[in-house]
């Protein structure tokens, strides 16, 4: 089937840059919500520790992990896929009141986990990725965009993982809730590996004169296949030695992939080097997790290398680049954006490295990392509030 993509006519007449544009395209509300939530969730975490939220349905580390994945990360993924999906399919993705309703569903999920209403929280949090999957499937199927069908499947899997966490929390199933968290981590890792492979070499060659970032078919297969194998291993609960072997192969494959992208050529271009720096955290996550499987390191180091380093770094980098591109702004950074990169990647270094080299400094490391993370995403939210809520500078739709 042939897909016809409408070519937009150049805008004529005066450009409206003052009206409210938050619901015009998926990245706008979800990037803003995710960044605000990333900054404020540290305060919620502190309130839980202080005993002010004893009525909350999800508490402690399980709340922290759940909200990192099914709150913050999933919001960015959905915002990105709704925006990119329109370009991939040539068909509209949710805008206007349907987009506002999906954003409201996400907000409801964040609120309900802090209330005593466990079943309501479970249903709403599982419903959000499922609704996003359906909304994404409609343009993909209409345009026969089979290359990206798997994103729909991954969102459905995230819905199932979320429900698994909640059913365990509610005592309905005996499988621990952390199993659902691990599956969700693997799914997000695969999404980052796929999208990183698509955009980082392209952004490098487009943004850095003379760069020769490459993609090798065998390396691509090994990198993506090893992540899928890791996901399967976690689902099947393979023995630690087998998982360590899988993770070691994955770490080597992703390191080779990263080197082929010529990261050392990008240091003068923050909009590109932030993505390379974040992707390196995937390599470190896989290596640290392989070591932890053999009992050599605490598993939290590997987990935070993925969540704070890779997810945080790729999210802050992609949110700035795609927001600039889809609002008609030049693809270059200012001081506030570079500062947000440094703060988020600094949070990863402090959270992962300091406890490893000085275990007695774990608590100060956690607090310092939290402050850096909150400052980085808080800066993004403040800086991009007018960008995300106002129309494109070039007058085009979106």
Automatic annotation (TrEMBL):
Its transmembrane ranges are 30-48, 68-84, 96-113, 119-142, 149-172, 178-197, 272-291, 297-317, 338-357, 363-382
Could you tell me which Pfam families the record lists for this protein? Answer: NnrS
Instruction: Name the InterPro entries for this protein.
Output: NnrS
Q: Could you confirm whether the keyword Isomerase appears in this record?
A: no
Keyword Membrane listed? The answer is yes
Its domain of life reads: Bacteria
Kindly state which keywords UniProt assigns to this record, in alphabetical order.
Answer: Membrane, Transmembrane, Transmembrane helix
Any idea what this protein is called? NnrS family protein
Species: Piscinibacter terrae
Q: What is the lineage of its organism?
A: Bacteria, Pseudomonadati, Pseudomonadota, Betaproteobacteria, Burkholderiales
């Amino acid at each position: 089937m042939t897909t016809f993509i409408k070519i937009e006519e150049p805008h004529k007449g005066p450009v409206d840059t003052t009206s409210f544009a938050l619901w015009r395209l998926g990245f706008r509300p979800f990037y803003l919500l995710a960044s605000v939530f990333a900054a404020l969730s540290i305060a919620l975490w502190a309130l839980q520790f202080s005993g002010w939220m004893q009525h909350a349905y999800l508490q402690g580390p399980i709340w922290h992990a759940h909200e990192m994945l099914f709150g913050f990360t999933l919001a960015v993924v959905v915002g990105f896929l709704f925006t990119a999906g329109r370009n991939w399919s040539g068909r509209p993705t949710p805008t206007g009141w349907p987009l506002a309703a999906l954003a409201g569903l996400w907000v409801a999920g964040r609120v309900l986990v802090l209330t005593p209403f466990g079943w309501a929280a479970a249903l709403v949090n599982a419903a959000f990725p499922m609704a996003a999957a359906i909304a994404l499937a409609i343009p993909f199927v209409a345009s026969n965009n089979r290359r990206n069908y798997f994103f729909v499947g991954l969102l459905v899997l995230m819905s199932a993982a979320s429900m698994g966490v909640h059913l365990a929390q509610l005592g309905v199933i005996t499988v621990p809730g952390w199993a659902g968290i691990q599956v969700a981590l693997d799914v997000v890792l695969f999404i980052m590996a796929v999208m990183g492979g698509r955009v980082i070499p392209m952004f490098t060659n487009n943004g850095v004169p003379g760069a020769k970032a490459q993609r090798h078919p065998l390396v691509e297969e090994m990198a993506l296949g090893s992540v899928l194998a890791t996901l399967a291993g976690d689902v099947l609960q393979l023995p630690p030695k087998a998982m360590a072997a899988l993770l070691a192969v994955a770490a080597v494959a992703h390191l080779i992939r990263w080197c082929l992208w010529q990261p050392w050529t990008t240091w003068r271009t923050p909009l590109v080097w932030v993505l390379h720096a974040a992707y390196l955290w995937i390599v470190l996550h896989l290596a640290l997790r392989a070591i932890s499987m053999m009992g050599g390191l605490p598993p939290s180091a590997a987990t935070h290398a993925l969540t704070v380093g890779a997810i945080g770094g790729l999210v802050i980098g992609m949110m700035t680049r795609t927001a600039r591109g889809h609002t008609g702004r030049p693809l270059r950074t200012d001081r506030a954006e570079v500062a947000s990169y440094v703060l988020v990647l600094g949070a990863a270094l402090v959270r992962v490295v300091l406890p490893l080299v000085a275990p007695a400094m774990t608590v100060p490391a956690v607090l310092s990392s939290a402050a850096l993370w909150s400052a980085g995403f808080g800066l993004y939210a403040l800086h991009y509030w007018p960008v995300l809520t106002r129309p494109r500078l070039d007058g085009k739709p979106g």
